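Q: Can someone sanity-check these two? First one:
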Amino acid sequence: MLTYIASRRPRFLRVMLASLALSPLAYGDEPRLNADTLSGLKMRSIGPAFMSGRIADIAVHPEDKSTWYVGFGDGIYRSRDGGTSWENLGLAASEYIARIIVHPSNSDVVYVAAKGPLWSSGGDRGLFMTEDGGVSWTNVLSAGPYTGVNDVVMHPDHPDVLYASTHQRTRTVAALINGGPETLTSPRTAASSGVS
């Protein structure tokens, strides 16, 4: 909610931070929030929330800390130089990336939970996997044209076991149908998703 309000009214965030800095939130005689506390913050526009122009998730390569994967409004990006330059790896029609996981023992295997477009059916929705470092993607969990994967976690002791949840929704100007029958939580294993 705060993100929505702040993106719709950027002045709101500045006023809120200023009022917090001047408020009597204190421990003893020292204010908890003051000008020094907020001096490192610079106000800048990060784009409107409804345009899917924000970073949704970041995953760092388990061995090479200068390789990052980022989910953005038009797909997955990878940087091999700590964020200086980026390459688009696909999934452009996903619009909303929920989670990125890099396999800990095989960094060519990357999983992406994609919610898909909010205002239409189709797009890149589901749990996607690459086994070639992002050259190609396979949808390993798909439940329907209005159902995306909104989260995925990897079992800490068995990295070939994933737990994913799907979320079915239909959104229009007049209505939101949230959590239809295709909404579920399901374990995925290497054998059932094709991971070797």
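And here is the second, same format, sequence then tokens:
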Amino acid sequence: MYVESSPRPTCLGSVAGPAERPQAVPCDGAVSGAGLDTLARPCQKPGPSPAQDTLQKRARSKYLSMPLAIRLAELRSPLEKSYRNTIYCASTLKQDDGKLRGRYCGNRWCLVCSRVRTARAINKYKPILDTWTDAQFVTLTVRNVPGDQLDQTLDQMVKTSAVIRRAITRTDGLSFEALRKLECTHNYHRDDYHPHYHLIVNGKAQALALRNRWLAAWGDQADAQAQDVRPCTPGSALELFKYATKLASSSGGKKEYITPAALDTIFRAMRGRRIWQSVGFTAKATVDEEAAIGTDGNTAALTEDADGTDWLWHQDQHDWVDTRTGELLTGWTPNTSAESFVAHYAPPNLITTYGNESQAVTAQTSSTQTGAVPPGSTGASTQEAPGGYGRRHERSAGSGNPTADTRRRCETSRRRRNPAGLPGANAGYALAVESAQEILRL
């Protein structure tokens, strides 16, 4: 008797194809070729299309990233410029030929861009991991350290890993292949940092040798009970492609958010380091997961009828909005957890400063057409240079203060262009920048 064999389970598991996905049953139960029992099934609402699901997840990431980036920029750390870029990441999406194109900051802390990096990493490493028949999920840690020792500790972890790999291959005589991910979390109560590695190792003997040599190298700086080796499962493997640092944790049933200052300490210590690192093998990919994102034009639009539309991000609408019609792009609605996160990090004037610049543009249109000068506007003449994101220039007679003029011009150059070309947009953006200067203490 012939029995069809099922696919071999792998570390990351298998992804269901279109034919394997459950189909929603229409409410009237009219399914061609279905039995009578189909009529007794509860009505199932069809889920979002793949394109809409992708855009809704991107909207969620943008909704969460924006207030966090503002709080990080307020710290005026060495990463301030990068934090500012995240504020405006994917703020405008231009639709052409059934595709949505936008500018992305590419920063690791940006939730929008981290989704892109994670997808790249999975596409790059999953085909190789699926060939490992004895994959082990390994966790290697050291004791928590204060913030001023974090960078030095990460350096030592990288050096120790290289020494251990050579010892396993040369002294133990074992081949060694692994995918390693660097992570760091923050302890809210002790205000210290927990750097650690997660690895998928090809072979149990290699995984145990790695654990033992790690403990020997770190001595009393590593707790034996905290080092873990277990068979790799799809659930544990996906942990390798998640966060590089947790933004919130639960303690005693209460959610505690990591402070912006602690996040900045982690991001500065991890700057310039690879998050994912292949060890003992080379994975070929068209695009490296650490490569810059820049302009992305591969996102499918929901309908080609909206070609030529510029969608502008509205924080209070948690969506991109057609600046001409007010139509929402994704229809995503935040849950209680997302609203709680934004409420924790958002500054009081988040919406008026960063979230609704297109509303300011619309409000200024009527004022400009009637010749009225908006409240707070200096009436300075402004002109927009063509060329897209980050190329907006303001021209005025100047304030007589070279430092203030330079700061104003630098801030102006970071603003988006007016996507819809509405009259009076320059005055609207000027008002937005005045509020931005107040919140970021320029």
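A (reply): Looked at the second one. The chain has a mean pLDDT of 73. The first strand starts at residue 92 and ends at 96.
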